[in-house]
Design a protein that fits this description.
single chain; mainly alpha; Four Helix Bundle (Hemerythrin (Met), subunit A); 8 helices; about 0% strand
Amino acid sequence: MPGRGLSMRCGSLGGAKKRRPAFLPGLEQKAGLTLTNAKPRIHLNTPNKLTILRVFLSPLVLLLLLWEFPFHHLAAMAVFGAAALTDLFDGRIARSRGLITNLGKFLDPIADKMLTTAAFLGFLVLGRLDVWAVMLILTREFMVATIRMLAAKDDVVVAADFAGKAKTVAQFAAILFMFASLEFASWQGTLLAGLALPDAVYSVPLLVARILVWVSVVLTVISGCQYVYHYRRYLMDEN
């Protein structure tokens, strides 16, 4: 019947699968795109996982530093050292394997600042660090973070220069030495109580650690001033 045949043809047309034009797969391949209905998602590669691990280790460092139990300074030092190693490896892996992502660019500096800030705040609470040192360090970090955000609007990535890398190495070294000095000083009333060593044996390492922290503060300020000078155009009005 004519009506039935027309109905069957319409039904087959309605039930047929929609096909993309033949030229689209080639176009997608050339453009590096994939036209799918899947929602965009964050891909956690190895460098990003290491960075996220550093984020979670940062508050643990502060907890171990302030929570008094035998060898807690040593435990905090070990966790801080492990977190610092993730900072070393995530960048190398990302660059060598081409795994640099927007998530990594966003999280890596935050993780670094969380780690060092956790240690500095712990030293401040313990009375082993001057509040002015913490203020100068945090001020520099806020300035650099602001410059990075302003530069990102023009798709410019503000990479760490030599002064910035030297600042980071100096901070890590000073923090590790302070951890070791605090642990050694705690042995005065425990492991080394029977030796009756002069107080200077325990106090001098703490003094040296404090000086190293201030050296890192000076490098931090110098690095911040260089960032502001080199990228000052982002702080000026366009008109």
